[in-house]
Specification:
The relative contact order is 0.08. This protein has an eight-stranded antiparallel sheet. It is of the alpha+beta class. About 25% of the residues lie in helices and about 35% in strands. Helix 7 packs across helix 8 and helix 11 packs antiparallel against helix 13. It is built from 13 helices and 32 strands. The chain folds into five domains: about 180 residues, P-loop containing nucleotide triphosphate hydrolases (Rossmann fold); about 80 residues, Translation factors (Elongation Factor Tu (Ef-tu), domain 3, Beta Barrel); about 70 residues, 2-Layer Sandwich (Alpha-Beta Plaits), CATH 3.30.70.870; about 100 residues, Alpha-Beta Plaits; about 110 residues, Alpha-Beta Plaits, CATH 3.30.70.2570.
Length: about 600
């Protein structure tokens, strides 16, 4: 068993795409725990979608043996973290399990919005921070500029920064030595009551939930009866061990260790990330700090494209939920799209991943309704209602106050894009903007804006405007009063429930026109005129018309009195009118999909 002073727990944090997974690959390779023959890039990213997009979605952990230059044997526990803003709570729990972090910065791109956000989070946890400048092999690398940014923007000592190229394997030894010498060993008392932090969990089809945990005090071994302090559930430990590339069982885990616990927990939802494990018989008096319930922020309905697939979709979501505790869903139905599910997500990337994984892993074609956020309405009785589905919008006369969630967004981009960015922020109803110039040529812009305007198409537009150089990070702040209305879409006088949206009155007409135009392109022409309208209550605010096919009934009239032509046209008009009353308009599936796409994407 290792002495606690030879253990180092660390994490790698960075902005998306700064080379976190590649650096993890090099560290794993250097530790020699994997045969060269079985090696593949992004070895900790186990999902296809992670490998394709080059993003980390789930945290992973791995224990690396390392012999330092002075000959001591160390165990380095690397806790890999997701880089995207949607998963910031998971990142904070991974950090709470460490004593230090490698803060990775791209030598070509420099410090980005998420680099700063992650740094503050590491400082909140009092972690040792080792800045590492990656990608020094790139022709566009500018190490001097990045050193200036580390000093000016991050307030860290530029002389403490290490340089490396994870792709080429340059500087890896220095990083390992720095981890051993600059990150303190874990503290903790193996003799006291067990306190262990859950920082992740994954589902194993044969063993149930595998809990990833960091032990702070005490020990845990097979046969112990453990209790989750926040959830209040009691389980018996079946196996404990370390993460090498495969799970490696051990006799016990002790203070300072990072490892896994299998205790017959059925689903991932039964385990809450951030919960504290203690022993049932000698419980710890206080749980570890920082726990909070992860709440979904963005809501959308998922429907199968073929209604026969409803059962398959139900099974697919149930299986998917086993592995993703943040995803929530319940049954939902729509007159236009049939049976489906109302789902809650952590953010837009999470929504995108769930949609792609469900389609790919369960071979289903699905359709998503317009994403919405959770609004708060105060009604005449004084009760506050939270509404995330337009179908539950309260009676308009009963609403005394309507509020929507606001976020504080931090954006970083080169100063040449300032004008276009300000225009976008004004369009998205941003307020209280604050501009900082962290280094020459770069701008950090902090803005408060409604979450709903970010959900729609903000991130894509930001990337387009800044030609990929902009970065974006946000956190929810509070609810603020706003003039919210329910926008209904009518086709041939019939409401299409799947297209209803709760929107701010200021953008209702623009959104209604966009929807009407898209539907006009997609709905096939009929023998009668079809009106597509956007309405707020009884007031029509936008309209387009699909003109009918028309037979030329006057073709056989040549010369003669005009009244003969008029008579034939009147007769045709009556026929069309009757047809319109009995004719119904079938809206094709592609029409729903086209409405969800914005003009820019």
């Amino acid at each position: 068993m290792h002495m606690i002073k030879y253990i180092r727990n660390f994490s790698i944090i960075a902005h998306i795409d700064h080379g976190k997974s590649t650096l993890a690959d090099r560290l794993i390779e250097r530790s020699g725990i994997i045969n060269k023959r079985f090696f593949r890039n992004q070895i900790l990213d186990t999902m296809d979608i992670e490998r394709e997009r080059g993003i980390t979605i789930k945290s992973q952990a791995i224990t690396l043996p390392f012999i330092s230059t002075s000959g001591e044997r160390y165990l380095l526990n690397l806790i890999d973290t997701p880089g995207h803003v949607d998963f910031s709570y998971e990142v904070s729990r991974s950090m709470a399990s460490c004593e230090g972090v490698l803060l990775l910065i791209d030598a070509a791109q420099g410090v980005q919005a998420q680099t700063v956000a992650n740094l503050y989070m590491a400082m909140d946890h009092n972690l040792s921070i080792i800045p590492v400048i990656n990608k020094i092999d790139l022709p566009t690398a500018n190490v001097e500029m990045v050193l200036d940014q580390i000093d000016a923007e991050l307030g860290l000592d530029p002389y403490s920064a290490l340089t490396c190229s994870a792709k080429e394997g340059i500087g890896i030894e220095d990083i390992l030595e720095a981890i051993v010498h600059r990150i303190p060993p874990p503290t903790g008392d193996p003799q006291s009551s067990l306190r262990s932090l859950i920082f992740d969990a994954q589902y194993d089809a044969f063993r149930g939930t595998v809990i990833h945990t960091r032990i702070f005090d005490g020990t845990v071994k097979q046969g112990d009866i453990i209790r989750f302090m926040h959830a209040g559930r009691v389980h018996k430990v079946e196996e404990v061990g370390s993460f090498l590339l495969e799970r490696e069982p051990r006799e016990l885990l002790t203070a300072g260790d990072v490892g896994y616990v299998i205790a017959g927990v059925k689903t991932v939802s039964d385990v809450r990330i951030g919960d504290t494990i203690t022993k049932d018989r000698q419980p710890s008096e206080t749980p570890l700090p920082g726990f909070r319930e992860v709440k979904p922020v963005v809501f959308a309905s998922i429907y199968p494209i073929a209604s026969d697939d409803y059962e398959d979709l139900s099974v697919a979501l149930e299986k998917y939920k086993l592995n993703d505790s943040a995803f929530v869903y319940q049954k939902d139905s729509s007159i236009a799209l049939g049976q489906g599910f109302r789902c809650g997500f952590l953010g837009l990337l999470h929504l995108d991943i769930v949609q792609e994984r469900v389609e790919r892993e369960y071979d289903l074609s699905i359709i998503l309704s317009v994403p919405s956020v959770r609004y708060r309405f105060t009604v005449t009785s004084g009760e506050a209602l939270f509404v995330d589905n337009p179908a539950h919008y309260p009676e308009i006369t009963a609403i005394t106050r309507s509020e929507e969630p606001y976020i504080r967004a931090a954006m970083m981009f080169p100063d040449r894009y300032m004008g276009a960015m300000l225009k976008l922020i004004i369009e998205k109803r941003g307020v209280n903007s604050h501009v900082a110039y962290p280094s020459p040529g770069r701008i950090e812009l902090t803005v408060e804006m409604p979450l709903a305007s970010v959900v729609y198409d903000f991130y894509d537009r930001l990337k387009t405007i800044t030609q990929g150089y902009g970065s974006f990070d946000y956190n929810l702040i509070d609810y603020r009063e706003s003039d919210l209305v329910l926008l209904d879409i009518l086709v041939n006088g019939e409401k299409v429930d799947a297209l209803s949206q709760i929107v701010h009155r200021g953008i209702a007409r623009e959104r209604a026109l966009h929807t009407c135009e898209k539907l006009k392109e997609e709905i096939p022409r009929q023998m009668f005129k079809i009106a597509i309208q956007g309405a707020i209550g009884g007031q029509i605010i936008a309209r387009t018309t699909i003109s009918p096919f028309r037979k030329d009934v006057t073709a056989k009239c040549y010369g003669g009195d005009i009244t003969r032509k008029r008579k034939l046209l009147e007769k045709q008009k009556k026929g069309k009118k009757r047809m319109k009353m009995v004719g119904s308009v079938a809206i094709p599936q592609s029409a729903f999909l086209s409405v969800l796409k914005t003009d820019e994407s």
